[in-house]
C-alpha cells in the first residue's frame, strides 16, 4: 500500500513537472516570437528613422550616471501607448525688474505645481531695449543669459528653449550694449545648446541639426564698422561655418516636436545692423529642418507635429492678427518691409497640406495671446489641420499683468491631438485679484 502511495505521489510529481516544463517551453516560444515581431517592427536599415533610432540608442549608451534618470528624446512608440499628457508654453519675458523678480518666479512655481512632460520658452529673454537704472540684467551682457539659464534650470520638467530676436538680432542697438548680434547668438549656442539635452531639473535628449555641409549656419568671426563693448565691429564681416545646434527635434508618445531659429521683425534683415546673408543661410537651414521633421513624423507615423519658434511671420493683410502684413494666397509681404518669411511659409504650407494630420505652430513676438487658424492655401481656403498658438508676452509698462503661460493637453489618439488652456498665474493677477 505504501509503495502504491509513493508511486502515486511520484506520478503526480512527474505530471506536475511535465506541466511546468511545458508551460515554460511555451513561454519561451512566446517570448522569442515577441522579440522577433518587435525586431520586425523596427525601421528598415538605412532609413532616416533607423538613423535617428541608432542616434538615440548611442546617446543613451553614452549617458553618465547623472543623466541616468533623464527623459529620452523619443519613446520609439508606434502605437502611441494611448497615453495623454500635458506640456507648458511660455516666452517673451522677463521685460522688467518686476517681471524678473516676481512675475517669472511666480510663473515657474505655477508650472512646477503641475504635471508637465516638458516646458518650452519660445524666445525673447528680455525687452527689445535695455532699461537704464534697472537692478536686474536688461541688456545683452552675459549676465542676462546667466539669469535666463537660472530660470530654465529652476523648472522641474525638461525646459526647451529657442532664441528670440531680443536675445541676439537686436543686441546691436546702443540701448542693448551694444554687442555684435551674431556674436551674441554664438554665445547662446555655447551656453544653452552645448549638449544634446534641454535645460531643467530633469533633462530631455533632443536630436540636433548638426550638418555643416548641406545645411550650415553662420557664426561670428569678425565684424566691421563701429565697435561694440567687446571691441567687435557691429556690421557684418567674416563668418565661421557652424552647426545650427539651436534647432532641435524630439518625439513623445507619437507626437513630434521641433524648434526653429526664426526671428521676429524681419529675421535679421532690418533694424540697426542687418545681416541678410546670415539670414538667408539660416533660413535655408530652417526650411531643411522643418521639411526633415515632416519626413521623420511620417516615418514614425506620428499623430501630429508641433513647431516652436519666436517669430510671428504674419499670415494675412489684417494687422490685428499680428506680424507683418501678408497676402494670404501668395504669402508675399505687403507692408514694404524686407520679407524674412515668405520662402519659409511657402515651404511650410506645402508640407502641412501633404501631411494632413494636425500641425501646431507656436510662436511669441507680437505679445498677444491667441489661438487661431490663419493659414490659407493658394486659393484662399483655410488649412483645416493647421493651428497657430501665440504665447503670452509682455511690455515693461504692464508690470506682471501678462506673465502667464499656456498649458497644452496632448492626446495622440484624439482627432485634434492638441487642446489648449491659458494658465493665469494667481500671483500675477493685477487687475482682478485671485479669488
Brief characterization of the structure:
This protein is α/β, with parallel strands linked by helices and 435 residues long.
Question: What structural keywords apply?
Answer:
Purple Acid Phosphatase, chain A, domain 2, alpha/beta, 435 residues, disordered N terminus, 7 helices, single chain, 2 domains, 17% strand, 7-stranded mixed β-sheet, 31% helix, 5-stranded mixed β-sheet
Topology of this structure?
Layout (H helix, E strand, L loop, with lengths): L1 H40 L6 H15 L22 E6 L6 H16 L6 E3 L20 H12 L5 E3 L19 H12 L14 E2 L8 E11 L5 E10 L5 E5 L2 E5 L16 H24 L4 E5 L33 H14 L3 E5 L6 E3 L13 E5 L14 E6 L7 E6 L12
Parallel strand pairs: 1-2, 2-3, 8-9, 9-10, 10-12
Antiparallel strand pairs: 1-13, 4-7, 5-6, 7-8, 11-12, 13-14
What does this structure look like?
The protein is α/β, with parallel strands linked by helices and 435 residues long. It folds into two domains: 1-41; 45-428, Metallo-dependent phosphatases (Purple Acid Phosphatase, chain A, domain 2, 4-Layer Sandwich). The protein has helices at 2-41, 48-62, 97-112, 142-153, 181-192, 276-299, 342-355, and strands at 85-90, 119-121, 159-161, 207-208, 217-227, 233-242, 248-252, 255-259, 304-308, 359-363, 370-372, 386-390, 405-410, 418-423. The chain has a seven-stranded mixed sheet. The relative contact order is 0.13. The model is unreliable at 1-73 (pLDDT under 50).
Amino acid at each position: 500500500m505504501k509503495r502504491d502511495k509513493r508511486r502515486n505521489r511520484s506520478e503526480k510529481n512527474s505530471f506536475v513537472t511535465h506541466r511546468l516544463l511545458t508551460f515554460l517551453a511555451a513561454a519561451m516560444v512566446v517570448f522569442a516570437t515577441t522579440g522577433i515581431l518587435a525586431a520586425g517592427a523596427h525601421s528598415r536599415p538605412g532609413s532616416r528613422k533607423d538613423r535617428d533610432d541608432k542616434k538615440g540608442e548611442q546617446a543613451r549608451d553614452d549617458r553618465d550616471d547623472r543623466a541616468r534618470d533623464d527623459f529620452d528624446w523619443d519613446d520609439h512608440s508606434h502605437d502611441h501607448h494611448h497615453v495623454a499628457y500635458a506640456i507648458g508654453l511660455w516666452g517673451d519675458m522677463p521685460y522688467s525688474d518686476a517681471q524678473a523678480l516676481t512675475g517669472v518666479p511666480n510663473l515657474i512655481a505655477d508650472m512646477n505645481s503641475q504635471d508637465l512632460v516638458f516646458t518650452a520658452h519660445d524666445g525673447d529673454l528680455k525687452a527689445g531695449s535695455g532699461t537704464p537704472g534697472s537692478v536686474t540684467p536688461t541688456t545683452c551682457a552675459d549676465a542676462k543669459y546667466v539669469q535666463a539659464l537660472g530660470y530654465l534650470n529652476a523648472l522641474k520638467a525638461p525646459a526647451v528653449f529657442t532664441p528670440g530676436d531680443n536675445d541676439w538680432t537686436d543686441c546691436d542697438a546702443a540701448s542693448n550694449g551694444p554687442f555684435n548680434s551674431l556674436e551674441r547668438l554664438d554665445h547662446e549656442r555655447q551656453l544653452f545648446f552645448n549638449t544634446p539635452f534641454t535645460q531643467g531639473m530633469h533633462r530631455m535628449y533632443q536630436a540636433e541639426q548638426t550638418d555643416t555641409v548641406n545645411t550650415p549656419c553662420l557664426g561670428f568671426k569678425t565684424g566691421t564698422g563701429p565697435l561694440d563693448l567687446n571691441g567687435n565691429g557691429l556690421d557684418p564681416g567674416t563668418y565661421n561655418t557652424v552647426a545650427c545646434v539651436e534647432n532641435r527635434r524630439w518625439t513623445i508618445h507619437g507626437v513630434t516636436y521641433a524648434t526653429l531659429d526664426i526671428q521676429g521683425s524681419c529675421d535679421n534683415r532690418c533694424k540697426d545692423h542687418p545681416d541678410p546673408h546670415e539670414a538667408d543661410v539660416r533660413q535655408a537651414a530652417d526650411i531643411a529642418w522643418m521639411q526633415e521633421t515632416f519626413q521623420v513624423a511620417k516615418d514614425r507615423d506620428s499623430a501630429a507635429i508641433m513647431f516652436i519658434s519666436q517669430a510671428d511671420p504674419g499670415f494675412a493683410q489684417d494687422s490685428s492678427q499680428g506680424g507683418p502684413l501678408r497676402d494670404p494666397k501668395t504669402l508675399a509681404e505687403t507692408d514694404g518691409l524686407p520679407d524674412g518669411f515668405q520662402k519659409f511659409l511657402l515651404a511650410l504650407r506645402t508640407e502641412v497640406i501633404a501631411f494632413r494630420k494636425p500641425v501646431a505652430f507656436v510662436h511669441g513676438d507680437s505679445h498677444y495671446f491667441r489661438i487661431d487658424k490663419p493659414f490659407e492655401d493658394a486659393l484662399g481656403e483655410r488649412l483645416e489641420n493647421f493651428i497657430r498658438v501665440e504665447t503670452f508676452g509682455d511690455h515693461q509698462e504692464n508690470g506682471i499683468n501678462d506673465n502667464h503661460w499656456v498649458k497644452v493637453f496632448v492626446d495622440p489618439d484624439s482627432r485634434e491631438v492638441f487642446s489648449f488652456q491659458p494658465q493665469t498665474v494667481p500671483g500675477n493677477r493685477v487687475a482682478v485679484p485671485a479669488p
